Amino acid sequence: MKKQKAADTGILCLLIVLVIAFITPIFFVLMNSFKGKLYISENPFSFPRGELFAGITNYTEGIRKTGFFQAFGYSAFITVFSVFAIVLFTSMTAWYITRVKNKLSSVLYYTFVFSMIVPFQMIMFTMSKLADTLKLNNPLGMVVLYLGFGAGLSVFMFCGFVKSIPLDIEEAAMIDGCTPIQTYFQIVFPILKPTAITVAILNAMWVWNDYLLPYLVIGVSTKYKTIPVVVQYLMGSYGAKDYGSLMALLVLSIIPIIIFYLFCQKYIIEGVVAGAVKG
Amino acid sequence: MDKNLKKYFPIFVLPTLLAFFIAFVIPFIMGVYLSFCDFTTVTNAKWVGIDNYIKAFTNKEFLNALWFTIRFAVVAVISVNVFGFLLALLLTRGIRGTNVFRTVFFMPNLIGGIVLGYIWQSMINGVLAKYQVTMLMDAKYGFWGLVILMNWQLIGYIMIIYIAGLQNISPDLMEAAKIDGATSWQALIKIKIPMVMPSITICLFLTIANSFKMFDQNLALTAGGPSNKTTMMALDIYNTFYGKVGFEGVGQAKAVVFFVIVAIIGISQVVLSRKKEVES
């Protein structure tokens, strides 16, 4: 028993060391975000004390240069509406193609599954050209594109769950005079809720962090830039790199994610595991 | 029920289907077709047969990117899985505070690739500054930088999947092994590892696919530097499309090759896990 306890204390110490190692990069960025930009490359590991301390100038500068709050707004808009559209429309589609058994349904199902293994690079050029032609280069157009490109995984996950719902419940509702639309929203969708949460979380993480799709479709010359696009825009452009603004922007981009994580931790971890196991 | 529901196709399926055609089906078919064409915009395509594919496979940068990606994938997949599994073992012993550790280790997984890349670019350059070098001086810094970044991002994720697998092992089994006098090493090799084989399959393929498809992190950390020595496949395709005019066809051919590689990985996962399911 004593030996067990000693081993556990050892492991606890090891874990604490690992935790410190894990949060070091974030702490490093946070620390440097309060340093004058010239000191960041000179004294990367010292505390922002004395002449090194720059107050919040990096933050004001970074926000001014990139229009961070506007980018935050567009990121939030695109993420919220895309997730809403994906959950609503793909769950309806999944229910339909699982319940209506015909050739078309199975062709659709396998096409959705197929799309899951296609990497974005395969279609990025043609998709962005098509999006331009159809005037989808705006936040609402992005919602359409995310619905389309995210449909594969989401339909697949909803189909897996719909198959496990017994038909009797739906049939009883139909006999009682419910239309399919009423049956879906009053009976089926509430049962789908756990999968809907998983699908919502997986897609929210993807859309919020996605860089290439908004960069290619919306670009950097419009006002609709999202957070990953402004971060890359700040560093990817030629000329002197402003590491002060970069540090501040990195901190500002991480904060919303950490807040979201702390509030929905349980759902996020469960959702991600479910997504990995099924996908 | 079937007949009644069938009429509702426009409401239930059409919205998803329209978006799916715009964002996937049409671009995919066009992409396959254009990989056999010479074009700069989509409208001026001229059929050239397999010319683009020949150019892609004789393109040194593409082969370098392929080789770099494979080397990176091997190192990253092994390290992420070994560390993730070890952490899962440590966190399934019922030690106090397990949940807090789990929360912290998983957190980097939520941060997007671009932000991750710049966090590590500044970290690594900060360390290297002590030795008067930067990450862009030698490809080996970029390689190991990417490996470290990948570990930081994925260990927590992989760990969570292994924890779920380990927790599914019935306590009776471990109890029985203990009574029979198995050491903890024997219990690990003979019981735990065989029992989490399904999780190992999932994690291996997940990390392989993630390594091959890596783009944002690569772009933000090194952008391929020095002189494209740390460019991975996805970034090389991007550079071919948008770096120079006139190579769009070659870029599309590279993209098709890339798709085939990723598809083979995905399909072999399905086949392998199906086979396991039949056996058990």
TrEMBL record, chain A:
This is Carbohydrate ABC transporter membrane protein 2, CUT1 family (TC 3.A.1.1.-). InterPro entries: MetI-like, MetI-like_sf. One of its GO terms (cellular component) is plasma membrane. It comes from Lactonifactor longoviformis DSM 17459. Belongs to the binding-protein-dependent transport system permease family. The chain crosses the membrane at residues 12-31, 71-95, 107-128, 140-162, 183-208, 243-263. It is a multi-pass membrane protein. Keywords: Cell membrane, Membrane, Transmembrane, Transmembrane helix, Transport. One of its GO terms (biological process) is transmembrane transport. It is found in: Cell membrane. Residues 72-264 form the ABC transmembrane type-1 domain.
From TrEMBL, chain B:
Pfam families: BPD_transp_1. One of its GO terms (cellular component) is plasma membrane. The keyword Disulfide bond does not apply. It is found in: Cell membrane. Keywords: Cell membrane, Membrane, Transmembrane, Transmembrane helix, Transport. InterPro entries: ABC_transporter_permease, MetI-like, MetI-like_sf. One of its GO terms (biological process) is transmembrane transport. SUPFAM superfamilies: MetI-like. The keyword Transmembrane helix applies. It is a multi-pass membrane protein. Gene3D superfamilies: MetI-like (1.10.3720.10). It comes from the Bacteria. Residues 66-269 form the ABC transmembrane type-1 domain. The chain crosses the membrane at residues 12-36, 65-91, 103-121, 141-166, 187-209, 255-272. Belongs to the binding-protein-dependent transport system permease family. This is Raffinose/stachyose/melibiose transport system permease protein. It comes from Lactonifactor longoviformis DSM 17459.
